[in-house]
Structures are given as C-alpha cells and as structure tokens.
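Lab notebook, design round three. We kept the backbone fixed and only want residue identities now. Task for the bench partner: fill in a sequence for the structure below.
Input structure tokens:
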C-alpha cells in the first residue's frame, strides 16, 4: 500500500506545474477592444466570430515553435474589414492536447489550443 501511495504521489508531482503563456502582439490595422465598443463608435453590421489556433512549444512550454501571434494570425485579417470588439482570448488544454503532449513530451514538445472570439463590426 505504501508503494502504491509513493508511486501516485510521484506521478502527481511530476505531472503538475505552473507556467505563463505570453502571446505576442503586432499592430493591427483597425481598432481592437477587449470590452465594449471600440474607440470611435461601434455602430454598423456586427458579426460574432470564434476561431481556434494550435500553438506548439518546445522545452515543455518555454519556447514557442509555431506562430503564437494572435494578432497576425486572426485579428489582423478581421480588423482590416472593421473593428473587433468584445475580444476574448483563452488558452486551454483540450483532451486531444493532453494526449498529444503526453506522447511528444518525451522530447519536450507540448501543444495548447488558443480560442479567440469577439464581434467584428463593419463600419
């Protein structure tokens, strides 16, 4: 029983950790607001969007090896046609991310899913 408890405690300690995900930001051509109407109005045709992107990291999350610039990948395309309002960016591990990271974690590669949603307002 003590051996089983020691193994479970070891697995728990080895599989937990903390880290910070930092997304870089380039300049978008249109206004982007995290809450409420963007500066300069907010009237016009409004459409909600939800988009997901997968980000890969080396060294268990320390070094991004795929594009993690959410502005360039998602927002820049949308802001070109108007303003982006009520923006939400969420980083999460889905069940598929965990499964893949368990397999690729041996060589320090992990994966996470970034969910970006908001309202595109064409002015």
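Proposed sequence:
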């Amino acid at each position: 029983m003590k051996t089983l408890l020691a193994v479970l405690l070891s697995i728990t300690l080895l599989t937990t950790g903390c880290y910070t995900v930092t997304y870089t930001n380039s300049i978008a051509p249109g206004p982007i607001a995290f809450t409420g109407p963007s500066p300069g109005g907010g009237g016009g045709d409004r459409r909600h969007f939800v988009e997901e992107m997968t980000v890969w990291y080396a060294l268990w999350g320390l070094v991004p090896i795929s594009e993690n610039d959410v502005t360039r990948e998602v927002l820049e395309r949308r802001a070109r046609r108007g303003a982006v309002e009520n923006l939400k960016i969420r980083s999460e591990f889905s069940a598929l991310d965990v499964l893949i990271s368990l397999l690729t974690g041996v060589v320090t590669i992990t994966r996470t899913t970034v969910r970006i949603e908001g309202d595109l307002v064409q002015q």
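Keep this in mind before ordering anything: The longest helix spans residues 2-15.
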